[in-house]
Each structure stands twice: as C-alpha cells, then as structure tokens.
C-alpha cells in the first residue's frame, strides 16, 4: 500500500482534511465493491459505502490502532450496514459475480460464443455459491472474490485463522462437488 496507514489515520484523527480525503480515496473502491457484490445495486452500494465512511470517520476520534488493517475495520462496518439493508427490505441477498465488475468491457482474443459460455458458467457458479452455507459463502466471497487476507477474514467473521482456512477448504470442496453435479467441470460433464 502506498500510504502509511497508521500515520494517515493519526493525521486524520487530528483533523487533517487531506488525510481524511486520502483514507476515503484509498479505501472507497474496495468498500464499494463489497457493497455492490452483496446488493447487486450500484445505487444501494453507493449509499452503503457512503454510510460506511460517515460512520467510520465519525468514530475516528475513538479508533485505536490494532493488528487489523483499517480496511478490515471498514469492511466490518459495511457488512453490518449490509445486514441492516436486508433486514429493512426483508429480502434475500442477490448473488452478483464481483469478477464481472473487474473485467474489461471488451474482451480481447475471445470469440463471442466463448464469451457467452464463460459468462453463463460464471452465472451458474454464482448461483451454486448461493447454495453454500452462509459462513462458507462469506469466506469464499471475502477470500477468493475480494482477496482479503485470512487474518482479516478471521477478524471480520469473529473466528480464528484456522477456522477460516477450514471453512474455505470445506466451501471449495462443496462448491467443486456442486459444479461436478451440475456439469460445470469435465468430470461432472462426462
């Protein structure tokens, strides 16, 4: 990371507006992607990300440095807001493939029929991901889709690192079995 996170937080706590702005610029994209992956709505994701920063910056004077990254702190706030979002709306989360938001708009070197098949496979894998138990699904979303470190996922979920690794292993094994059952792997399609 190009900034010294703890120095930037200390400067922001002392009222340095440039430091506050830099924290937002550095962490906004990942918080927005997290919210978008959970809601499927750019407008709702924008609102959740904004509320995350309003809450985090409002609590910044009380924030104390820990071994967890500031991104973990922000992610925890965002996940709580996403939980509230669904409680208020009384509906199940929409499964969205966050990888689609990281892909270029124009695929280079891929034939149109291959691109359609790849898109269909991604959609099917997302649907199967939704069949996993909640904790396993969350571990896959955080570890695989968002690239969050094991230690940070452990803090977010309130589990040990070993428990996160075990959940990830079980989730991947279950997801592979589901892919096999639905013909998304060579062995399952034979």
The second-level CATH architecture of the largest domain is Orthogonal Bundle
- Topology-level CATH name of the largest domain: Rna Polymerase Sigma Factor, Chain: A
Number of domains: 2
Helix content: 55-70%
Radius of gyration: 19 Å
Low-confidence stretches: 100-108
Key traits:
Arc Repressor Mutant, subunit A; RNA_pol_sigma-70-like; DNA-binding; RNA_pol_sigma_r3/r4-like; about 70% helix; Rna Polymerase Sigma Factor, Chain: A; sigma factor; mainly alpha; about 190 residues; transcription regulation; 2 domains; elongated
Brief account:
By secondary structure, the chain is an all-alpha fold. 69% of the residues lie in helices and 0% in strands.
What does this structure look like?
- With 190 residues, this protein is mainly alpha-helical.
- Helix content is 69%, strand content 0%.
- The chain contains nine helices and no strands.
- The longest helix is centred in the first third of the chain and has 23 residues, at 17-39.
- The chain starts with a helix and ends with a helix.
Q: How does the SSE layout of this entry go?
A:
Layout: H1 5-13, H2 17-39, H3 42-58, H4 70-89, H5 112-129, H6 134-145, H7 150-157, H8 161-181, H9 186-189
Helix pairs in contact: 1-2, 2-3, 2-4, 3-4, 4-7, 6-8, 7-8
